[in-house]
Amino acid sequence: MSRLKIVQIRSAIGRQKVQKVTIRTLGIHRLHEAVIQDDTPQIRGMIARVRHLLRVEEVD
Length: 60
Known about the structure:
The chain is α+β, with helices and mostly antiparallel strands. It has helices spanning about 15-25, 40-50; strands at about 5-10, 35-40, 55-60. The protein has one domain: CATH 3.30.1390.20. About 30% of the residues lie in helices and about 30% in strands. The protein is globular.
């Protein structure tokens, strides 16, 4: 299974509560923090909801 490196590049301040919760659910706690997640449909859906705040790369 491939994995995704997810980095928050824009602040969640002033965003809707749903977007803030989604960022936390992805495991991101601060700006420019990188997390590694499995590439699943659930994770892809969360990324799609806040794609304007994130940078996503595939890793091996």
